[in-house]
Every structure is written in C-alpha cells, then in structure tokens.
Amino acid sequence: MANRIALIGGETLLGREVREVFSESSLGGELRLIAADEEETGKLVALDGAAAFLSKLDPGSLEDAEILVLCGSPKSSREALAANPSAFVVDLTYLIDEDPDARLRAPQAEGLDYQPDHSGPQIVAHPAAVAIALVLDRLSKIAPLSQAVINVYEPSSERGKAGIEELQQQTVSLLAFKEMPKKVFDAQLAFAMLPQFGEEAQTRLNEIEERIERHLATLLDRMEGIPMPSLRLTQSPVFHGYSFSLWIEFEDAPPVPDLEDALAGDHIDVRGADLEPPTNVSVAGQGGIAIGAITPDRNNGNAVWLWMAADNFRLPAETAAMIVQEYI
Question: Is the pTM of this model over 0.70?
C-alpha cells in the first residue's frame, strides 16, 4: 500500500529531519505527510527529492495508514491516535511516555540479543539518553565502570521553532538595548547558561532532565553491570545540537587509545587526539554521535573525561527509522 506511513507534524523541525532520514531509504516512498498545525495544511515541502503537500489532520487522512509517526504537538498526536487507534505508533513527542503498553526504544543501544516488542506503541528514547547509553555500553565492554557524572547541554531548538526564534530575538534585542521576549524560557538565554527556566516558562527544565534519566535508566536496565550515572541538564544559548561533558571512572582505567578503539564503530565517530573535538555545530546533519577530547583525569588515575556531541533531531529521526524498518 502506498503512503502507508503517516508522518504527523511533517512541517516541524523534527518532522523535517524524519522526512530526510526516511528519504535516504525505501521508507521515503511510503510517507504521507500530515500537518500538525492547521495553518500549515497545503504547504509544499521536500520529500524524497520531489515536492509533496502537507495534508490536513483529520480521520480521512489517517484511516488507512498502517503506521503513525508522531512529530507534532501533543494536540496533534492525540488527534492522530484518536483517528486511527489500531495503527502501529512511533512516538517522538513523548505523549505516551507513561502508557504501560508503550515500549521505550533505542535500537542503536539495545544490542543484537535484544528482542523488540512490537505489540504496543513505540516511544523513541530521548536523544541524550540514547547517546549516553551507547557510550557507557561500549566502554563497559572494555573495563568495568565504577561511576559517571554527565553534564548535558541542551539547544534552544528542543523547544521547536519558537525556541530558536526567541533566542534569536533575545540576542538582537539585547544588542539593541531593547526589552527581550521571554515567552518560551521566561529568562534571558542569550549569552547565558540556564540551570532552570523562569516560573512562567511553557516547559520545566527539571522535567526534561527527569525524562532523560528515566529513559536512560530503562536503557541501562537492558545491559549488564553499568551503574546509573549522575546527570545534570543545562540550557545552553545555542540553536542546534546537544553537547555533553562526561566524567567516567573505571575500576581500572584502560589507556586512552584502547578507549578510542572500544568506542569506535557503528553510530559513534571517534575524534582522536590529532583531530579537533566535535562541537554541536560540526555534527549538524551528522548521524549517530561524535566523541573527542578523551583525557585522563589528572586527580584520579582511574577516571577519564570525554566530550561528546550529537544532532538533536538527526539522532531521534534515525531511531524512528530503525523502529519502522523492524516493523515492516
């Protein structure tokens, strides 16, 4: 059946990345683009090297879809689920995060022995949780881990187009000595790092941090011998891309070249000492994650520092594609 995969929110930043990733495989020809925002209905967008229209979100546009990929607003996700409750669901919006029948997924970090359960809706694991789980799993295979402390730096685009626009407007307003808009973050993000948002912000930073922890704990529970790390999320004044600072302690730390060899492989690009470490800018549009600046801790012989970066839209889009390819 043609167009059996309905992408809800094909106009969003995340939806755009899903379109691109799916178009790199046979999935591109299966996509049916549905607008999450009614104002975007009828808009012309790129799909699989051609032009495609965003259809209106209604029961008629979804009734024969076999797979729903949710990338829009909570409202659009609820409407899509109500319109076609029997479809196979891949949720990138976390709407069904607490559904007991849902399954949290990250094929990149699950291992070859993991048997996926497709009987219920699939939640695409938070990209930060996927990146951290993937790294800890690779490192645990070379030496036992004692503990880890991880700082995660979130980009403004995680709040969608509104987050990007507010950061841009804040920057321009600040340089022009004008009042800054604060609708999204309820705080000055331009030229600042935020440990929390303002009280009137649409989202709580600690709630995002807790989601990352929950997803990471679920992924690590499927592995053996990996302790849950301590984690802190900080909002950074950048547009795109996650950055991570990881401190990892081993029971007996291997040499850095051995760590680089252990990490290198599918989904991980290791930048050795002779290369520049990755940044949130350099990984834009890049699949998987990138790691560099692996440095022994000068004050602890069994600990190392790592720097990591990942595209915050590319990684979950790749995860969604893997899940759909499993199912079909």
Answer: yes
